[in-house]
Amino acid sequence: MRIMAQLAMVMNLDKCIGCHTCSVTCKQAWTNRGGVEYAWFNNVETRPGQGFPRRYEDQDRWRGGWERTRRGRLKLRAGGRARKLLSLFANPDLPEIGDYYEPWTYEYRNLTEAPLGDDVPTARPTSQLSGRPYQPKWGPNWDDDLGGAAEHGERDPLLTRISDQIKFEFEQTFMFYLPRICEHCLNPSCVASCPSGAMYKRVEDGIVLVDQDACRGWRMCVTGCPYKKVYFNHKTGKAEKCTFCYPRVEAGQPTVCAETCVGRLRHIGVVLYDADKVLAAASVAEEHQLYSAQLDVFCDPDDPAVIEAAERTGIPHDWITAAQRSPVYDLICRHRVALPLHPEYRTMPMVWYIPPLSPVVDAVAGSGFDGEDGNNLFGAIDTLRIPVSYLAELFTAGDPEPVRASLRKLAAMRSFMRAVNLGDEPRDEIAEAVGTTGAGLKSLYRLLALAKYEERYVIPTAGVAQAHDLEAIATKCSLDTDGGPGMGGGGTVNLFSWREGSRPDGLFPSLRGETADRGRK
Questions:
Q1: What is the pTM of this model?
Q2: What is residue 376's predicted lDDT score, i.e. its pLDDT?
Q3: Are residues 47 and 81 in the same domain?
Q4: Structural domain range at position 127
Q5: In this structure, what DSSP letter does residue 203 have?
Q6: Cα separation, 337 vs 177, whole angstroms
Q7: Nearest to 30 by CA among 300, 243, 349
Q8: In the prediction, which pLDDT does 173 show?
Q9: Residues 4 and 64 placed together within one structural domain of the fold
Q10: β-pairing, 3-12 with 199-201?
């Protein structure tokens, strides 16, 4: 058992209102310069829709992620070394700028500097790449608020896998928002795709980064990432991606997207996992088993054997404590309401999602029944306007049972907590029906509805992780530290018996041209 620590995120899609505040603040912090105008490290997609870049989930076209061979081994969909060598200077599996969108701005100067006249000045759109007049035809979320569902919705790659065809009629339309960042996977295919070794996964916290000095701009990482969250800066010739705001998390602060989230739907915490199980879990034969296989990789931070193994591998005590208080571990493993995004890519993503339950309550109430009653909610889950089969294609490789179990637990929480808040006798059978207890539903409710800032973001700092080393140094004389004047090897100095007029060996640095024992008067 080789325990490692990973910073992870869980997003509650029931609370996302699609305001794009996370996207804008991330854009301002990380991609507000030339060469990455089109890049959005954080974007919010409207589902159903084609996503960003367009139809990125069609891996038959983009060849991202891993696939399992007949011998049970994993290989990159984009091919091995031989194929990469042949396509080194002409990679055929890259999205074009039209698949993202050609970024544009407006000639705002015309509004303020246009001469007086009878015509009203306008600010025409211009391309940020060429500077020429441009008519926008696509954007990072062109499907926003169902504006393009009737025209583009059926091009969603997930809908082609659902047997019962969904009609995009106004009365039957369903939608929800899906915020996306880099998944910082346990088995990242982007790292394995990089010929120059510039992409790497940090040992201390699992964040996947790009070494800008080592990057040679081959762009194989763009192809290898099935989520298409690696971007190419056409001015610097380097790859760039979401950094999980590592300068912030090293100081114990949440990412910019989480900090500014209006709906407070993001949770960040530490997850301990067994690195020796990652490859086997990513290589299971059945895609429906990938979700449960990844759950088996995660370790209980309260298990004494896990704690001992974590300390043996050098994980600081502060990180172990943070893992024990982690809201991410609770939502993923204890309550099991969070699900991974596209586990069939076999990258083992570490940004998980709580599927949206809304608008089931309104739908039940609209039919004349009690919209908060547990039995009514359980029966309405399979008739959601958001089909369970669609959510299953998104989160569990097409297996509807984990999605249904998550939605049932969320529905049970609503019904149970309504009785608690109204002063009625809570019904324990509601909790038992979803495999938990009343205390478990209360804990889940607090985490999703009432959790304060320090409960949603449990992030150990890099400085605290070194505190024990500093404490060990403090127990000795400060002169004995590495590089200090007490490094002469003469042992400790008894300052009480130090005779006036003498200079003990090792207490002060030697003077130039003098030996250590000189200086006596």
A1: 0.84
A2: 59
A3: yes
A4: 102-136
A5: T
A6: 18
A7: 243
A8: 65
A9: no
A10: unpaired
- Closest-CA residue to 286 (of 338, 346, 348): 346
**Domain-located, residue 199:** no
- What DSSP string describes 303-369? -HHHHHHHHHTT--HHHHHHHHT-HHHIIIIIS---EES-GGGSS--SEEEEPP-TTHHHHHHHTTS
Angstrom CA distances, 59 to 78, 95, 241, 269, stand at 10, 12, 20, 30
Q: Angle at CA 418, nearest 5°, toward 414 and 419?
A: 125
pLDDT of 509: 45
Q: How far apart are CA 385 and CA 173, in angstroms?
A: 7
Are 419 and 503 in a shared domain?
A: no
Q: Evaluate whether residue 46 is within a structural domain.
A: yes
Residues 357 and 397 in one domain: yes
| Lookup: tokens for 14 | 């029931």
Backbone angles phi, psi at 97, to 5 degrees: -60, -30
257 close to 42: Cβ distance less than 8 angstroms: yes
CA atoms within 13 A on the CB side of 305: 6
Query: Rounded to whole angstroms, how far apart are CA atoms 154 and 166?
Result: 9
- The confidence score (pLDDT) of residue 475 equals 37
CA–centroid distance for 334 within its chain: 19
Helix (H, G, I), strand (E, B) or coil at 387: coil
Considering the domain architecture, whether residues 406 and 442 belong to the same structural domain is answered as yes
Q: How is residue 267 written in tokens? A: 């949770």
Which residues fall within 8 angstroms of residue 153, CB to CB, at 6 or more apart?
48, 49, 143, 159, 168
Q: What is the pLDDT of residue 424?
A: 82
Task: Check: CB of residue 394 under 8 Å from CB of residue 341.
Answer: yes
* Length of the chain measured in residues: 521
Beta bridge partners of 66: 76
485: enclosing H helix or E strand: none
Are residues 438 and 506 located together in one domain of the fold? no
Domain assignment present for 426: yes
Residue 145 CA, chain-centre distance (Å), reads 24
Residues 44 and 130 in one domain: no
322 with 429, same domain?
Answer: yes
Q: What domain count does the chain have?
A: 4
Under 8 Å between Cβ of 101 and 140:
yes
- Do residues 152 and 142 touch, judged by C-beta distance below 8 A? yes
Query: What whole-number distance in Å separates Cα of residue 104 and Cα of residue 123?
Result: 12
**d(C-alpha 521, C-alpha 501), whole Å:** 6
Query: Which residues does the chain have with pLDDT short of 50?
Result: 366-369, 371, 464-465, 467-498, 500, 504, 506-521
